[in-house]
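Table 4 source record.
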Amino acid sequence: MREQPLKKSIIIARCANWILRNDDKAFRIFVTSNREDAIKRLMKKDGLDADNAGKRIDQINTGRNNHYFQYTGRRWTDARDYDMVVNTSTLGLEECADIIVDCIDKRVSHNK
């Protein structure tokens, strides 16, 4: 897949957790939220009404699910394929970001 080992990198891509599943140094994170919060964020970001934001979310998530299943035979929302799952609806975006950074820092310190 790669010619040289990655140092510190963040990879945001479909199937990234699957591609890196055997990499002991990878830390795979799934970020989720409830539907209502996702709709509100998309409405604000893209200026959509609630109905169109919901349709866009459904379309994107269906595409993600189909793509992931096609290449892995699994569901992209399966928590077993990640090291961490955070819910921005429960904790908020900033708190989730802080938790992720703290966990990665601790993991890096532990692996030294």
